[in-house]
Amino acid sequence: MRIENFKVEEWFNKYEKDAVYDLADTCVESLSINELFEITGNKEKSLEEIFNQKLNYGAIHGSQRLKNAISSLYKNQNSENITVTHGAIGANHLVMLSIVEFGDKVVSIVPTYQQHYSIPKSFGANVEMFFLKEEENWLPNLENLEKIVGKDTKLICLNNPNNPTGAVIPDEILEKIVEIAKKSNAYILCDEVYRGLNHEGNPFSASIADVYDKGISTSSMSKVFSLAGLRLGWICANKKIIDIINHQREYNTISMGILDDYFASLAIENKDKIVKRNIEKILTGKKILLDWAKINKKIHIIEPKGGTTAFVRYDSELNSKQLCKELQQQTGVMILPGETMELDGYLRIGYGNNFEQLKKALEIFTQWL
Ligand SMILES: Cc1ncc(COP(=O)(O)O)c(C=O)c1O
Fold first, then answer.
1. Residue with CA at minimum distance from ligand 1 atom 15
2. Residue nearest atom 14 of ligand 1, based on CA coordinates
């Protein structure tokens, strides 16, 4: 099946290996296994469990322990509402495979992760891209969304908290989106891979699975738990939807790695400590970024409220791909061009990683601009 190039992933493949300062990354600094054990405690017991673990297929849809841990991240879910996947990327793909057919109408709120419009397009769905706007604080304009969804939409896709803008949809707006979806009996797929990283108040805002019967939440260990190397994600939805998804899943997953399942369970059972660590890091990085933007007249930022990235407008004649290419070639600073997320004139900056590098790279960028 033909599918468009995945622009963000291609940019990473091409430029990340030569980056001296990587401001394109979206993870909070990853944890080593040792660091994970420092957080969870009881390293000796964990090592013994790992060394005694038989490397069989394990539980097909995820161990009971893992599914219990994952369901604790939601308000009204239990283990039968969960199936585990190859990262959030595998989760999103499986949802599309299970729900979208040729000729269906899909509304995708952009900018977002490209899976949410390119995969349904590749199936022959009629995909409408609904663009968020900086002047609306990157939040969906409900009146316009209602018009575009209409009566015949099968699926609405969104990403909350949003990559790249860092916008968090307030609960009352999420409820209004649900009302719009209900009118056409549409599913909502909400990619919640950054849910758990709200900068203020409860780090976990409402999940679509908790507020809508046809809401499907996808997420993973990559961002909130700093364990992208586990390649473990999940889908959370009502049991009927999970059954439909598992029917497709038989063809591409069998089970996740048994050690990935073990580490993920351990990490989620210690979610409060890991989330606290990560939010502290994000707030430090965000301050560095906002202080830099304040004194830089050519840079305009709507303050991100969740996640690890900001979407920055810049004043320059260069389009975003040219800018990022020349910047990296001349200085080693890697930033992601907005064009790879369908919005030229913007740059995505990740600020959850190494702060010394972030400071230095932003200084270099200012001089270069
Ligand atoms: C919004 C969004 N969804 C999904 C993914 C894929 O995440 P995972 O590492 O869990 O496959 C990413 C990765 O950057 C992302 O930003």
1. 113
2. 26
In tens, the pLDDT along 232-245 reads 999 999 999 999 99
Number of domains in the chain: 2
pLDDT 10s digits, 295-354: 999 999 999 999 999 999 999 999 999 999 999 999 999 999 999 999 999 999 999 988
Q: 49 with 243: CB under 8 angstroms?
A: no
Residue predicted with more confidence, 310 or 1: 310
Query: What domain range includes position 311?
Result: 7-33+273-368
- C-alpha of residue 52 to centroid of ligand 1, in Å: 32
Q: Please indicate, yes or no, if residue 2 is contained in any of the structural domains.
A: no
Q: Report the nearest atom of ligand 1 relative to the CA of 163.
A: 1
Q: How far is the CA of 105 from the centre of ligand 1 (A)?
A: 24
CA 340 – ligand 1 centroid, Å: 15
Distance CA 18, CA 329 (A): 9
- pTM value? 0.97
DSSP output for 31-80: PPHHHHHHHH--HHHHHHHHHH---S---TT--HHHHHHHHTTSSS--GG
Q: Cα of 92 to ligand 1 centre, how many Å?
A: 9
The answer to whether residues 203 and 275 touch, using CB atoms and an 8 Å cutoff, is yes
Mean of the per-residue pLDDT values for the chain? Answer: 97
In a 10 Å sphere around its CB, with 0-12 CB exposed, 13-18 middle and 19+ buried, how is residue 84 labelled?
buried
Which residue among 114, 194, 223 has the greatest number of ligand 1 atoms within 8 angstroms of its CB, and so is best to mutate?
223
Q: Are residues 342 and 362 in the same domain?
A: yes
What's the whole-number mean pLDDT along residues 246-269? Answer: 97
Is 261 in the same domain as 353? no
Residues with CB under 6 A from ligand 1: 26, 87-89, 113, 159, 163, 191, 193, 220, 222, 228, 233
Mean pLDDT of 192-220: 98
Quick one: 13 and 106 in the same domain? Answer: no
| pLDDT band, residue 1 (cuts 50/70/90) | confident
